[in-house]
């Protein structure tokens, strides 16, 4: 009780400071950016000290409430801290994003999800309440019964409705271990059908897959278990850290739906199985710098391959200018066509696949242009496209535009944490500007940058110029010295 009281007092003081800063910008009619201290975005972000509201200290976690099965967290709380805090009480958030450094606030404002989103929707759909500082510095709350439209529209808006200062997150019971049943599927259409059938199985809790190349797709169904059949059945550290390679090796055994291969992981390892190397980025880094991959080199590089360090390195080195990192939401009727297009356009890639819910069920039907109503009742599939792109800047730009525009043609949409190449007209053809502006006016957000202005400002900074060796060395130095302010302009 004393801890809760102290946390609440500290929280109120931090919110009052943020309100004061926001009101200063509002009164002086100046735009500002929200500085979080870190990012899981690949956009070349740049912040100026005199044009930010600093929320980097907003990382307080309140006690788990087992009666309401919720926990309250400030926006800067990362996924690994949130998961550990909850697992200690035998529960876990309904959605836990796959990178340890993704924050609660980032997950809410960026349309994040993971392999349980077919049950619960996106992370923001599992947030029942928010506290938010609006654009004029006033403090407001929103829930499913109070300011419900603000709760819905502030989600996925990249912070363009205000600064969320507290979130209430829904929880479910959890066990210490997870069993993952893995099978090889050779055809995307068949994988889609298998995904759909699995969503009706109450014994399964997590569903996802990895498309390695044509004819080689790993489909994984996972469930909570109290313990593994034997201690030596649990994946070891390096097997977890190189999870994509671990499961691809299993595919060589050609596991089937009738005879899947079962692997066991701690629940924490399962939740963050893609963290090390940021999916399969670690493998790409070895290839980029012409370093052989073996047990020794992987061990030596291991401390620098967590997702936090990988994103730090992407920003420092400018290598995000050469690697495609994009996530799309594609309706069931066109997902096979989209994956086929991606495979032809970007041969050197791997794709993350996971079923979500339908747009109408997760509050997306009012976000996008009217044509999306055609697929509002179809299941969406998360399609994460990650791979090596062309080194030539013009070719890289054109490749990303092709992916963006093809997803729109197929009535899908991309997540905006990544680099965005739409023109302003294209952007507002996809996203509903009329509804967005109406909501911003209602909640006093008109002095804040719009979503497109934020995306455009990031892409126009000139940050992220290519400097691979120096950038990697600077990242290693920053990690050794504890420097985390690499996004702030000196």
From TrEMBL:
<dbReference type="GO" id="GO:0050614">
    <property type="term" value="F:Delta24-sterol reductase activity"/>
</dbReference>
<feature type="domain" description="FAD-binding PCMH-type">
    <location>
        <begin position="1"/>
        <end position="174"/>
    </location>
</feature>
<dbReference type="InterPro" id="IPR016166">
    <property type="entry name" value="FAD-bd_PCMH"/>
</dbReference>
<keyword id="KW-1133">Transmembrane helix</keyword>
<dbReference type="GO" id="GO:0071949">
    <property type="term" value="F:FAD binding"/>
</dbReference>
<dbReference type="GO" id="GO:0008202">
    <property type="term" value="P:steroid metabolic process"/>
</dbReference>
<dbReference type="InterPro" id="IPR006094">
    <property type="entry name" value="Oxid_FAD_bind_N"/>
</dbReference>
<keyword id="KW-0472">Membrane</keyword>
<protein>
    <recommendedName>
        <fullName>Delta(24)-sterol reductase</fullName>
        <ecNumber>1.3.1.72</ecNumber>
    </recommendedName>
</protein>
<dbReference type="InterPro" id="IPR016169">
    <property type="entry name" value="FAD-bd_PCMH_sub2"/>
</dbReference>
<dbReference type="GO" id="GO:0016020">
    <property type="term" value="C:membrane"/>
</dbReference>
<dbReference type="InterPro" id="IPR036318">
    <property type="entry name" value="FAD-bd_PCMH-like_sf"/>
</dbReference>
<keyword id="KW-0560">Oxidoreductase</keyword>
<dbReference type="InterPro" id="IPR040165">
    <property type="entry name" value="Diminuto-like"/>
</dbReference>
<keyword id="KW-0812">Transmembrane</keyword>
<dbReference type="GO" id="GO:0005737">
    <property type="term" value="C:cytoplasm"/>
</dbReference>
<dbReference type="GO" id="GO:0000246">
    <property type="term" value="F:Delta24(24-1) sterol reductase activity"/>
</dbReference>
<dbReference type="Pfam" id="PF01565">
    <property type="entry name" value="FAD_binding_4"/>
</dbReference>
């Amino acid at each position: 009780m004393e801890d809760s009281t102290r946390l609440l007092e500290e929280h109120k003081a931090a919110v009052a400071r943020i309100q004061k800063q926001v009101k200063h910008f509002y009164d002086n009619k100046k735009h500002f950016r929200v500085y979080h201290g870190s990012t899981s975005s690949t956009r070349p972000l740049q912040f100026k000290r005199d044009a930010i509201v600093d929320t980097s200290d907003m990382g307080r976690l309140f006690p788990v409430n087992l009666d309401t099965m919720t926990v309250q967290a400030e926006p800067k709380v990362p996924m690994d801290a949130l998961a550990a805090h909850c697992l200690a009480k035998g529960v876990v958030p309904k959605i836990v994003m796959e990178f340890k450094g993704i924050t609660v606030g980032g997950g809410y404002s960026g349309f994040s999800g993971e392999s349980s989103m077919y049950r619960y929707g996106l992370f923001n759909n599992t947030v029942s309440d928010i506290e938010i500082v609006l654009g004029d510095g006033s403090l407001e709350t929103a829930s499913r019964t109070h300011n419900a439209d603000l709760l819905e529209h502030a989600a996925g808006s990249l912070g363009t409705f205000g600064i969320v200062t507290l979130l209430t997150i829904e929880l479910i019971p959890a066990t210490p271990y997870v069993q993952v049943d893995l099978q090889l599927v050779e055809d995307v259409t068949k994988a889609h059908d298998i995904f759909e059938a699995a969503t009706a199985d109450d014994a399964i809790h997590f569903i996802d897959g990895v498309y390695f190349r044509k004819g080689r797709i790993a489909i994984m169904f996972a469930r909570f278990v109290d313990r593994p059949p034997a201690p030596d059945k649990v994946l070891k550290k390096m097997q977890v850290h190189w999870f994509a390679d671990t499961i691809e090796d299993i595919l060589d055994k050609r596991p089937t739906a009738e005879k899947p291969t079962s692997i066991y992981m701690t629940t924490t390892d399962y939740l963050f199985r893609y963290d090390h190397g940021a999916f399969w980025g670690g493998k790409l880094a070895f290839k980029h710098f012409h370093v052989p991959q073996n047990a020794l080199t992987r061990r030596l590089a291991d401390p620098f391959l967590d997702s936090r360090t990988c994103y730090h390195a992407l920003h420092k080195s400018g290598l995000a200018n050469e690697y495609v990192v994009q996530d799309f939401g594609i309706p069931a009727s066109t997902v096979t066509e989209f994956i086929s297009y991606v495979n032809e356009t970007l041969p050197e890639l791997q794709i993350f696949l996971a079923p979500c819910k339908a747009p109408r069920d997760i509050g997306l039907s009012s976000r996008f242009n009217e044509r999306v109503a055609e697929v509002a009742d179809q299941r969406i599939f998360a399609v994460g496209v990650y791979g090596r792109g062309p080194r030539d800047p013009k070719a890289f730009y054109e490749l990303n535009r092709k992916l963006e525009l093809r997803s729109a043609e197929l009535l899908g949409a991309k997540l905006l944490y990544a680099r965005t190449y739409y023109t302003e007209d294209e952007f507002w053809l996809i996203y509903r500007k009329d509804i967005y502006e109406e909501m911003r006016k209602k909640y006093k957000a008109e002095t804040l940058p719009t979503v497109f202005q934020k995306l455009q400002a990031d892409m126009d900074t000139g940050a992220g110029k290519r400097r691979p060796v120096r950038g990697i060395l600077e990242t290693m130095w920053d990690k050794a010295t504890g420097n985390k302010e690499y996004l702030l302009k000196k």
